[in-house]
Amino acid sequence: MAAVLRNAMGHVRSTVMCETVLVFCVLVTLVQSMDVIPMTEDSFVFTQANYNASITEGAVGKSYVTPAMKMGIYVTDPTFSVRYKVINGDEDGMFKADERLIGDFCFLRLRLRTGSHLVINRELNDMYKLTIKARGDYGHNRKKFTSYTEVIVNVLDENDLSPIFFERSYEKRIPETTPLHASIVRVEASDADIGVNGEIYYSFAEKTDVFAIHPTNGIVYLTRPLSYSSEDVFELEVLAKDRGPAPWGYHRPSRANLRVEVVKVNFHSPKIQLQELPAVIEHGQLDSVYAILYVSDEDVGINGEISSIKIINGDPGGYFKLIKGDKEWEYNIEVARVLDREMDPNGFNLTIQAADKGSPKRITTEVIHVKLQDTNDQTPQFEQDDYSVSVDECVPASTPLLFVKATDTDYAKNAEIQYAIQSGNQFGWFAVNADTGLLYVKSALDAENKTSVELVVVAEDQANMGSRRVSHVNVNITIVDCNDNEPVFMNPQPVDVEINEGQPVGSEVLQIKAYDLDMGENGYLSYSIANPEGLPFDIDHFTGKIITKEVLDYEYMRRMYKLQVRASDWGTPFRRESEIVVTIRLNDINDNKPHFEKVDCKGYVSRDAPVGTSLVVIPAIDFEVTNIISYAISSGNEDNCFEIISSNGELRTNCPFERKRKNMYSLGVTATDGINTAEPTYVNLTLVNSRNKLLANGYSSITCQDTDVSKDLARLLSQATENNARHDIPHTSDVPFLKNVHSPRFPPSLPSSIIVTEGRPVGDTIISLKAMDGDQGYNGRLVYVIASGNVDDVFTMNTYSGDLVVLSEIDREKREQYTLNISVSDMGSPPKSTYKILEIHVDDVNDNSPVFEKTEYSVVIREDRPINSTILRVVATDADDGMNAQMVYSILTDVTQFSIDASTGEISVKRVLDREEQPEYVLHIQAVDQSPDKPLTSVVPVTITLTDINDNSPKFQLERYHVRAREDLPVGTVVVTIQADDPDDGKGGEVRYALLDGMGDKFEIDRITGTIRIAQELDFEAKQLYNITARAKDRGDHSLSTRCEIIIEVVDVNENLYPPSFADFVFQGRVKENEPVNTIVMQLIAVDNDAKKNPLATSKDYDITYSIRNGSGLGLFTVDSRVQSPLSVVASLNGTLGCHLPGDALCNEQFMDHVCAITSGDMSVVADHSLGLVVYSEEIRLCLNWIVLKLTQRSGVRRWVLPKTPRVLMPPSEVELASLVGLCGGLDSTGRFDMFVYLDIEARLRLLSLTAVKVQHAIFCPLAAHIALSVVVT
Questions:
Q1: 4: buried, middle or exposed (CB in 10 Å: 19+, 13-18, 0-12)?
Q2: What sign for the dihedral angle of Cα 1072, 1078, 1083, 1088?
Q3: Mean pLDDT within 880-906
Q4: Confidence label for 1092 from pLDDT (cuts 50, 70 and 90)
Q5: What is the phi/psi pair of residue 196, to 5°?
Q6: Alpha carbon 241 to its chain's center
Q7: If pLDDT is split at 50, 70 and 90, which confidence band does 224 have?
Q8: Residue 1265 CA neighbour count, 13 Å, CB half
Q9: Which residues lie below 8 Å from residue 473, measured CB to CB, with a gap of 6+?
Q10: Which residues of 86-116 are buried (b: 16+ CB within 10 A; e: fewer)?
């Protein structure tokens, strides 16, 4: 015999689902005809070790628990007796166990005892864990069997409790500026019931437009703007009501009081108004009032009272204080400490803070500028403690020396400075430009007179007379000698000296002395002879001593010399020299002895020669032409026999010789000029007889040797004549370097006008104006100066080079042209000079940026301003010249709505304006000059503000609103808030709302905020959908409006409270095998108490339909889905019945089918019943029994789910039990009930197959908690 297939059928309590069918399962068993099998201890066991069942709280005696599956024991022997008893878990004795044998199964049924005073109360005990004992036997004195199981009885909730607020009253203070839809407070209530019975709806007892309460979370929020002046306190009563069915037809809500106090908002900040008094004078009187402040606040009450006013910034030194004035809200700013404008030249920016007493307090800050009036309390201060400068004494007048610069930290006239030389300028050599402070040479300097000058320069401010302040500075001027003095001879002039001839070489003739007033090397002198050629003299270069360099000889040399003695200093670049003529006369002295013309005379004298006989004349010549020579016999004339004429040198006899024994005489003859004596010459005479033939016709014969002295004298005299004839020498005036012949002259090629670029660096050379002078030395040495035209002391001339140099800043914007008188003079004596007029045109450099007339521009225009219309003109100027001053305007900001005329600066509308798109434009306008090299720019902001016109209709945030609302939501619940935005300004942007059609009397809208509430209770059965047209309209001139569609879908709420019920939990019937199709087997009737006990129910809620849900006869029997009252179910045989066991043994087959009674309401409630059918089979067939719960029918697909923890008895090779996958259904966010875990089943005749599907959703279901199992057929 094939194994008996048994399947555990589930039994669940009524469950609410959207578009699903709730199944109430009743056990159906298959009873198979077989031989009696005795019961054994092993076979006497409960089908499950534990069972789940449920009972409704408040159930009365004899109320049965509803099991999730059939409970009991299979009994294979009809003679076997079974009894059940509760032995544990029922301390109060509330439960009783009954048994009922149907076929081969003894059902365990639990019920409440009758007469018990205890009531099932879920809130006290929501679960009973009962231990059931089963006893079985065959009668007396037979063996008894026992078995145990555990039944967990869950108490199902009844809506027997009302919500309770956590607090009976709530209070909340909110500011009147609380934004719309802001949460104010949350009220909370609790309900000990569970599921829908414990879900709470909140509502207000009375209608209010100002507040709304969320129906489920109890949050109270604002739906109308608040105004303290209109209403400052709201007293509201909040209701809390659960959603469960009322056991007696009436819900008693709980109540709580809500007090909302509107707090006046401190709207206005204090205002500070200033009444300025004259400026504060520095070093003025303490406590003097600078300004009066009037502090006010437009708020009323404490919000309008001023709590404090103080100086919070801008006065770190505490120079000011705030003192309460005489009048209300009047405060004085007074001087607290001595002020010094120089310490704070820009004054003070006092930040005044005023705070009111509001909560939160409002604070206003105002910056007040305090301007200090200057008093002349500061003395000009020179940039240096003293100044030093060196200057060549030879610079011409008007040569600049240096700038003395002083500053004065006072203001205006008190800070204007004039310069003057106070002392030290006794010679009047210097002057100072009173405006610029340039110190310059006023007249010729003389270092020989004074080498240093200490000037005292004063700087005096230009304050009122009597209050002017003066400062002094010493300027030390060192006058540098420039060799402007020629040497001066000290010797008396004319210089005429005599010198004796014959002085030895190096003999001093004369010392020339000179001096030079210059200093240093300029005053060092050296001497020279300018005409040294042929002169026998030399001069010591350092001492000036004239000495002989030859022995002078009067007789043949020049007897008068004129020397050009030159005294030269050591100056640079040229020496200064002076010359003097020194006349040297040669004195003749007897420095020459006579020279005999004849010498070595010898001869014969007759002894007979008479006395006085002339023998020979021995002449002598003296080179001293003026000398007289006298002769004498110096020797050999002892006997005085000879004499010589002293005047002419004639030798005569002076005695007779006849008696003389001497034969020879050697006479020494000398000649003298009186001083010098010639070397003696000797005359050798031999005395002979008169007849001696050596005598020639006389008494003597004497011969002498001629010396040619006369020729020498002739030559000497000739030379002397020649030398003394050359006595002419050049005069000093004929020396070129001593004469200033030429005047300086500028080359014709030098321009008469030049262009100088402004901004040239100080010290930069502009042009070289070098002049020419044909003279030499200092006569050709030139010095330059700007004689006039140098306004503002901008230029200077290099004294020696002739370079025109920048002395101070060149600014074309200050002066465009200069006409300079350039003077040049030589350093000759007397000097010669010339001048040149030079025009300097200052060429512009782009050193000035454009300057707009205003620091910012603003204009207000209508947003409908025509295109191309001019709205504003910006003007910029540039202090530069030419292209550097020409402006081109452009818009830097990336906008397309405006354009600017590049040349005129006119700003025009270029495109259509829209204030709603952009209410304000800040354009950055650039003005750029047209400099080709380095253009400069300036930028100015231009604010263009658009005023509104009502050109925009309100626009809803959504064109269509689609919302779902449960039909049981309280009146006053906000279902949706529509919002339309109107970007227009003022009343053109204020929107008012209205519902035009489609709302019936069920909905209303707040005209100000667009909040739509439930006005009357909704009824899904009456109307499921509302298509409402809403309008938003602005309040502007020529108001505009728009519309939107609001679809409100009413969600059905289960009002089907009672499931259909059968008279019993199990029915039995019989049908013969091979009965024809449509044979009526039996009739079942179910009833629904919604018809009598549920005032909310409609006919659909108790209109019952029937179906076969499951069982072994599924597909073999049918049932009429609907039977008119009295209700009945007809099961018909549908095809041939039979079972085949191996071996074709015949058997009786018992079918157990589930018959379900289902109400036809939208929220169906099912009564499930087990139907036992016994069929007499002629053959045995193997059939599979499936336990399923039908949930819904969608798109032609039958979807199924297994009940919680079923017992599946199938061959392991065919079915495997899968893991738990999740919950099966619940209430989604829209309020719609649905189930989400399915098993698809394909029904076939006599063989069914299962297919597992995944869980699509798993959310909490408040009415049922099914667990889904996946079953896989392998």
A1: middle
A2: positive
A3: 93
A4: confident
A5: -65, -25
A6: 60
A7: very high
A8: 6
A9: 382, 384, 385, 386, 387, 404, 406, 456, 457, 459
A10: beebbeeebbbbebeebbbbbbbbbbbeeee
Q: Report d(CA 323, CA 317) in Å as an integer.
A: 17
Residue 332: partners with Cβ closer than 8 Å, 6 or more residues away:
289, 291, 292, 293, 322, 323, 324, 325
What's the confidence (pLDDT) of residue 237? 94
Residue 465 confidence (pLDDT): 86
Nearest to residue 1202, comparing CAs of 1246, 1165, 1255, 1124? 1255
Question: Which residues touch 465 (CB under 8 Å, ≥6 apart)?
Answer: none
**Residue 104, SS3?**
coil
Best CA proximity match to 211, nearest among 1046, 968, 1013, 1032: 1013
Within 13 Å, how many C-alpha atoms sit on residue 1222's CB side? 16
pLDDT of residue 1266: 31
Mean pLDDT of the chain: 81
Q: Specify which residues 922 forms β-bridges with.
A: 943
Mean pLDDT of 1006-1031: 93
pLDDT band at residue 44 under the 50/70/90 scheme = very high
Q: Are 718 and 711 in contact (CB under 8 A)?
A: no
Residues 6+ apart with CB under 8 A from 304: 268, 297, 298, 356
**Confidence band for 1249, pLDDT divided at 50, 70 and 90:** very low
- Give 652-696 pLDDT, tens digit per residue: 999 988 888 888 889 999 999 888 888 899 999 888 887 787 887
Query: Residue 886's CB: how many other CB atoms inside 10 A?
Result: 15
Residues 746 and 834: beta-carbon distance below 8 Å:
yes
Give the C-alpha distances (Å, rounded to integers) separating 1258 from 23, 1201, 1224, 1252.
Answer: 20, 14, 6, 16
Q: How confident is the model at residue 797 (pLDDT cuts 50, 70, 90)?
A: very high
Burial (Cβ within 10 Å: 0-12, 13-18, ≥19) of residue 956 = buried
- Interior angle at CA 1186, CA 1180 and CA 1187, nearest 5: 140
Give Cα separations from 104 to 33, 1066, 1114, 1150, 1180 (angstroms).
Answer: 10, 14, 21, 10, 19
Give how far Cα 1024 sits from Cα of 216, 1005, 1015, 1045, Å.
22, 20, 16, 16
Tell whether pTM > 0.85.
no
**Banded pLDDT at 276 (limits 50, 70, 90):** confident
Distance between CA atoms of residues 906 and 912, nearest Å: 18
**Could you tell me which residues are beta bridge partners of residue 355?**
308, 363
Instruction: Please state, in angstroms and rounded to a whole number, the distance separating the CA atoms of residues 136 and 134.
Output: 7
Question: How crowded is residue 605: how many other Cβ atoms within 10 Å of its Cβ?
Answer: 27
**How far is residue 314's CA from residue 271's CA, in Å, rounded to a whole number?**
20
Strands (E), 194-337: 200-204, 211-213, 219-222, 233-242, 254-263, 271-276, 280-281, 289-296, 306-313, 320-324, 330-335
Q: Report helix, strand or coil for 1080.
A: strand
Give the C-alpha separation, 337 to 280, whole Å.
12
Pairing of strands 200-204, 233-242: antiparallel
Q: Which of 642-651, 1032-1041, 1107-1116 is predicted with the least confidence, judged by mean pLDDT? A: 1107-1116
Q: Please tell me whether residue 919 adopts helix, strand or coil conformation.
A: coil
Closest by Cα among 537, 474, 547, 543 to 512: 543
Q: Is the pLDDT of residue 965 over 70?
A: yes
SS (H, E, C) 876-908: EECCCCHHHHCEEEEECCCCCCEEECCCCCEEE
Q: What distance in Å separates the CA atoms of residue 335 and residue 322, rounded to the nearest whole number? A: 9
Q: Which helix (H) or strand (E) holds 818?
A: strand 817-826
Would you say 433 and 793 are in contact if contact means Cβ atoms under 8 Å apart? yes
